[in-house]
Design goal:
This is TetR/AcrR family transcriptional regulator. Helix content is 67%, strand content 0%. It has ten helices and no strands.
């Protein structure tokens, strides 16, 4: 029943009642858990319904197919990340490079429980290339914006280059903290130190003249 037919191409149902919204939240949470555990391709609609303690008909009432669930999860994950990036961007002008480095390096690791299916969804062999590119592009844009707020004289090209390095460091931190990458007990702290040193050395020369960190 995971296949798509013309009748299954309808948009996900948006419930108006609180009980319906709660049910959708439970179904999406179950889907996110399973996709994170087993991968997108291996997860079935029946397993999602069972994990949520719902009847399969209830799942199909809200979502016509697994692709609709994946799209909804991706949109949710993007909104969560966007909110966090914007929040750190708003604070960046008052942060030292070390403080900004810490805020960024741990951002994705801290949010992982809320967006845990994101890596599997991003890597799934489905036609979401545009959405994946948009998510990466938005992350790079928000990081570069925060960098320039912290170091106002930083040019855009350099900010973009630094943002790409920081984003990769953030992904490595997620793998270390949540066991998806080879690591050692002290490795996350070492990565934090490395990120601090990197941003301090790169942003320091572009900070506003006459500003002293910590004042």
């Amino acid at each position: 029943m995971d296949s798509s037919t013309s009748s299954e191409k309808r948009a996900p149902l948006q419930p108006r009642r609180a009980v319906g919204r709660q049910r959708v939240a439970e179904l999406l949470a179950a889907a996110s858990d399973l996709i994170a555990e087993r991968g997108y391709d291996a997860t079935t609609m029946a397993e999602i319904a069972a994990r949520a303690g719902a009847k399969i008909g209830s799942l199909y009432r809200f979502f016509p197919n697994k692709e609709a669930i994946a799209e909804t999860l991706l949109q949710q994950h993007m909104a969560i990340l966007q909110e966090e990036y914007e929040a750190i961007g708003c604070r960046a002008s008052g942060l030292s490079p070390d403080e900004l480095a810490d805020g960024l390096i741990d951002l994705m690791a801290r949010l992982y429980p809320r967006v845990q299916s994101l890596p599997a969804l991003m890597g799934a062999h489905t036609d979401r290339t545009e959405l994946r590119a948009r998510l990466r592009g938005q992350a790079l844009l928000e990081i570069a914006t925060a960098l320039r707020a912290c170091a106002p004289r930083l040019d855009q090209k350099t900010a973009d280059d630094i943002a790409a390095v920081v984003l990769n460091n953030m992904k490595v931190m997620v793998g270390m903290v949540h066991g998806d990458a080879p690591t050692a007990p002290g490795a996350p702290d070492e990565l934090r130190r490395m990120n601090r040193l990197y941003l301090s050395s790169r942003l320091g020369p572009f900070r506003s003249l006459g500003r002293i960190d910590g004042e």
